[in-house]
Structures are given as structure tokens and as C-alpha cells.
Design a protein that fits this description.
mainly alpha
Length: about 170
């Protein structure tokens, strides 16, 4: 879409916190109005609508929209966001195993600023499945590079959590 549309979507999201819970429907209506400007087959429409439902506490309504956006070819940065957010919504709706299946390949994908979010969401999905050691390993591994000291130690501890015990 054009830059002005993108700017209006960004402005809507920047104002999201101005909508208390009882006015969440107004925020979703704003997103719906912006989506109505898109071509019918655009993957951006269901993605933005999914984000709006998800952000207003309706993971169940967001899941099919994230799926639709990805099926329509949403890729790149927004595609990665959709996978992260879909996995989180799946976990919230009792389908953490599917979230793990969606996010695990992202660990080996191209690196970007969403890497830590992938690991954090994957860790939550793993924890929901009772796989806390794997989840903690991911979180420690993501945290280690951001520490002012102990990066190597934390990275080693993260690996040790999932290595077979001898």
C-alpha cells in the first residue's frame, strides 16, 4: 500500500493506548476502515485486523485472520510478526503445540530484530507444554547477548539446560 496509508495505520497503533477496554470496538472499527481501503486480496487487511482483535483480548478471533494473511502471502517482516503473534494466540487458545511448530523454523531463518520475540514466544509455548527447561534455555540464550557481563556463561548455561545429561 502507499506510504500515507502506512502512516495512518502507524498513527492508529500509536494511539492504541488511548482506547480503554470499553472502547476497544472503536479501535477495531478504525482498523477496519483502514483495511477497507485495501484491495480485497491484500494480506495486510487480515493481518491488521488480527492484530486489532489480538491486542483487544480476542486471540480466538485473531487466529483465523493471521492464518488468512499468511495464506495470502504475507511475508518479510510482517510475515514474521504474524507467525509470532499467531503462535502466541494459539498458545492463548490452548494450541501451544501448533505454536511450537510455527516458530521452531524461525530459529534458523534470517536474523532480524524479532529474533528475541521469536524465542520469547516459543519459550512460552514450550512452557505451556511442560517443556520449561527448553523454554528457559531459549530465554537465557536470547538474554545473554544483552548482558553487560557474563554473556558467555549465560549462553553456556542456556545450552546446558537442553543438552543430554551424562
Amino acid at each position: 500500500m502507499n506510504e500515507k496509508w502506512e502512516d495512518r495505520v502507524a498513527a492508529a497503533w500509536a494511539a492504541f493506548d488511548d482506547y480503554p477496554e470499553e472502547r476497544a470496538h472503536e479501535f477495531r472499527a478504525l482498523i477496519d476502515a483502514l483495511v477497507a481501503e485495501l484491495p480485497d486480496d491484500s494480506p495486510l487487511g487480515p493481518f491488521e485486523q488480527a492484530c486489532a482483535w489480538d491486542s483487544t483480548g480476542h486471540s480466538d478471533r485473531a487466529v483465523p485472520l493471521y492464518r488468512e494473511a499468511l495464506a495470502r502471502g504475507l511475508d518479510g517482516y510482517r510475515g514474521r510478526r504474524a507467525k509470532i503473534q499467531l503462535s502466541s494466540s494459539l498458545r492463548n487458545t490452548g494450541h501451544a503445540e501448533e505454536g511450537v511448530k510455527i516458530l521452531t523454523p524461525e530459529l534458523d531463518g534470517p536474523s532480524d530484530e524479532l529474533d528475541d520475540a521469536v524465542r520469547a514466544c516459543l519459550a512460552l509455548c514450550l512452557s505451556s507444554l511442560g517443556r520449561d527447561r527448553e523454554g528457559l534455555s531459549l530465554v537465557l540464550g536470547a538474554l545473554a547477548p544483552h548482558l553487560p557481563r557474563y554473556q558467555r556463561s549465560m549462553a553456556n548455561y542456556a545450552r546446558a539446560l537442553v543438552e543430554p545429561r551424562g
